[in-house]
Amino acid sequence: MTLIVAISNSSAAGIVAYEGFEYVSGSTMNGQGNSSMGWSGAWSPTPFNATINDDLIAAGTSLGFGSLGTLGGSVLGTSQTAISGLVRNFATPFGQTNETFYMSVLLRPESNAGTGFLGNYFGLTFETSANDPELFIGRPGSADTWSLERRGGGLLVSSGVTATTGRTDLLVVRADLSANSDVFRLYVNPQLGAAEPAQAVPLTLLNLGVISGIGLYYTGGFAVDEIRVGTTFSSVTAVPEAGFPVLLFATLAAAVGRRGRR
Questions:
Q1: Is the model's pLDDT at 37 over the cut of 60?
Q2: What does the pLDDT read at residue 11?
Q3: SS3 for 50?
Q4: End-to-end CA, the chain
Q5: Cα–Cα distance between 144 and 121 in angstroms, integer?
Q6: Contact yes or no for 142/60 (Cβ under 8 A)
Q7: Burial of 2 (0-12, 13-18, 19+ CB in 10 A)
Q8: What is the pLDDT of residue 249?
Q9: Strand partners of residue 196
């Protein structure tokens, strides 16, 4: 499969992992991974305490967000009566040295907050080998706003932006990792193609250690698309630019190689 995305060379240079969810519509995400780069393997079980692993289903259309470059797919998860999700590990984990990285993702609520099992929470986690502490990014069970939270509850910091059912929002997380503590900042719907905003929602956690991958973690219905991980804010919020098509897989392969040799 050849994946070409029209994106500026300068922006693509900072991307180290990408998932556009361009899979056969109706297929389960468990075991998938061909339309992406920068990971060590496919989506697989299991985030912390998740017992349902086959509910995440590929959809045939992208969520879309303004002028953000997207592929043709997304993924849907339905409300469950138990913790659900999948994990995907990075080709090169983060946190082995002091470093900063960014992650962006498109999320759309498909369930109402505060109802259902554990409040219909959904979002992404930064997975660690120790399982605790871990960072949760999304709509928690105890609030209806996009938030950062220690996975499992506690230390919740809200963005103040309501996660509205049926509306797609762009979430960008900045992670500043150090030996003593890790600081995370959340931006909701930042201006595409602009500089990193001066203001963000900060959350300081004890050192997470090595961040090995990303989890899709939920009990409430939601849709997810366009996971980007990069070394700069611009790399995960890039706007396609006519005349600058690049082979994204080639860019990612080079970036992963550089990180692996550091």
A1: yes
A2: 52
A3: coil
A4: 29
A5: 9
A6: no
A7: exposed
A8: 43
A9: none
Helix (H) / strand (E) containing 211 = strand 211-218
Per-residue pLDDT of 246-261, as tens digits, reads 445 445 445 444 555 4
Please state, in angstroms and rounded to a whole number, the distance separating the CA atoms of residues 41 and 140.
28
| Domain residue ranges in the chain | 4-260
199 φψ region: left (φ > 0), alpha (ψ -120 to 50), beta (else): beta
Structure-token pair, residue 206: 């004890």
Does pLDDT of 97 surpass 70?
A: yes
In order of 89, 121, 143, the CA distances from 181 in angstroms are 22, 26, 25
What sign results for the dihedral spanned by CA atoms 180, 132, 138, 89? positive
Specify whether the CB–CB gap between 83 and 115 falls below 8 A: no
The residue assigned the tokens 């389960």 is 28
How far is the C-alpha of 52 from the C-alpha of 118, rounded, in Å?
A: 15
- Distance, in Å, from the CA atom of 151 to the CA atom of 184, rounded to the nearest integer, reads 13
Between CA 83 and CA 51 the distance in angstroms is 6
- Nearest one of 45, 41, 36, 44 to 17, comparing CA atoms: 36
User: Which residues are bridge partners to 90 per DSSP?
Assistant: 39
The stretch 112-125 carries a mean pLDDT of 94
Strands in 65-180 per DSSP E: 74-77, 84-94, 99-109, 122-128, 135-139, 145-150, 157-162, 169-177
Residue 254: which residues within 8 A CB-CB, separation 6 or more? none
Per-residue model confidence (pLDDT) at position 258: 52
Q: In this predicted model, which residue has the larger pLDDT, 26 or 67?
A: 26
* CATH architecture type of domain 4-260: Sandwich (2.60)
Amino acid at 128: T
Mean pLDDT of the chain: 86
